Amino acid sequence: MTSTVHHPDHHPLTVGFDLDMTLIDSRPGIAAAFRVLVAETGVPIDIDLVVSRLGPPLETELAHWFPAAEVPAAAVLYRAAYPDHAIDPSTALAGARESVAAVQALGGRAIVVTAKNEVHAKLHLSHLGIEPDTVIGSLWAEAKGEALREQGAQVYVGDHTGDVRGARVAAALSVGVTTGPCDAAELRTAGADVVLEDLTGFPAWLTAFEADRAA
Question: Which SUPFAM superfamilies does the record cross-reference, listed alphabetically (predicted)?
Answer without folding.
Answer: HAD-like
